[in-house]
User: Fold these one by one.
Assistant:
Number 1:
Amino acid sequence: MVTPAMPAVSFQNVSKTFPASRGDIHALSDVSFDIEQGEFFGLLGPNGAGKTTLISILAGLTRASRGHVLVHGKDVQSDYQAARRQLGVVPQELVFDPFFSVRESLKIQSGYFGIRGNAAWIDELLEGLGLADKAGANMRQLSGGMKRRVLIAQALVHKPPVIVLDEPTAGVDVELRQTLWKFISDLNKRMGSTVLLTTHYLEEAEALCGRIAMLKNGRVVALEATSELLSRASSNVLRFKTDQALPLDLNQLARVTGRVVQLPAHDALEVERLLARMRESGLTVQDVEIRKADLEDVFLDLMQGARGVPQVRGEGASA
Ligand SMILES: Nc1ncnc2c1ncn2[C@@H]1O[C@H](COP(=O)(O)OP(=O)(O)O)[C@@H](O)[C@H]1O
Ligand SMILES: [Mg+2]
């Protein structure tokens, strides 16, 4: 029955407008892309970019104003039950029922999908997510990080082929992050599960995701293999410290964090030009170094580009 070419998820011209007293909010504008079966796909974007809205539409919790979303060929609106069964969604917000134990809540969730005799898989989930010794604990007794693990177990209880995680590691400690990534990567590699992940941790996306879509103001501003995205960036970053204000032209290009200034540079010639410009303007600097650009640099480049700030290179990144 399953055609190999059928995408796991297909977003087709999805728009979402929220009516508001000060004029409509265009949360999503004509978003179209496919996620293939077995992909580990990253959806990145700053706060308010529309990531959660897109995932709510995918999960059938919010209705798109225009366009369609298909999960394994099933329309999330007109064929809700079938589409929902293919999906395991971990929401951004921690929502849980405080009256049940961890194991009970997983049994209830199984029942919701009409699954009985799910104990072996529930045990595997509890084990894999480091929840085994909390199985009998009441949900309200758990720390935020532990609740997050239960939410992930709940999303996976019906063995969905498509796993969707909306900022699952926001505000979560390093150890839990690593447990989660090991577990989800395993599902992706061993069971061929498709994973759609939104995250603020760009190094995480860089390490895990084969392809990345970047959203800005409800529009897709980049959609590429992670390696392509990285190679498209200015390859170097000139980094130094200073107590002085930068001249305007450099300031427009720079990323400034306290005393630390970072300037993107395409090649050695551009590094030289930047250094010359710094000397010329009488800037006193310390700890000058050149490092290789990473995904965060690409991201910030793209987000700045979308704001209309001049790019380091002559033509814009999206030309
Ligand atoms: N229920 C809603 N009502 C009105 N505006 C909303 C609602 N949900 C989201 N928005 C707006 O839509 C935009 C996208 O939000 P969201 O999808 O949560 O972004 P992200 O998850 O990328 O931070 C924001 O401007 C947000 O304020
Ligand atoms: Mg969000």
Note: The chain has eleven helices and 14 strands.
Number 2:
Amino acid sequence: MTSRAKKYTLDDMDTFLKNVIDTALKSAKNAMERNEIPVAAVIFSPESEKIIAIASNRTEQDHDPTAHAEILAVRSASALLRQTRLTDYDMYVTLEPCPMCATAISFARLRRLYFGAYDVKGGGVDHGCRVYRNQTNLYTPEVYGGIAQTRCEELLSSFFKTLRGNDR
Ligand SMILES: [Zn+2]
């Protein structure tokens, strides 16, 4: 069981996983165009090389503070499969999950969690309350942080730069 993010480089990855990352980044860019914080999550099976859910933040659009990409992706995958446990599936998300999403990922029993950028302020995996290291946490996915980190960070920083620009 791992609660700390492992080092994992893009060179270690197969074409399918790279495709998953590209899909997530595209979806995150789409969120940015809707004036949402550009974060997206993809749930997939590495065995069948199938993507079963893609979601990006919709908190503004839905007026829903819980409409984070990871929550929406878990809901969508669970509804599609008609099951509450996603044990055969992995998630890639462009930003370290917050405590709410880290908990939802645990509830969904996702096998692996890959994330892009680290979130020092809002993250709940490697920062803050570190959900998976908590004694009350019942299930911990395998965690790989910093996957395509630079691309995810660039997208987030360009969004926040634009926001600051609009304030002037
Ligand atoms: Zn979240």
Note: The longest helix spans residues 15-33.
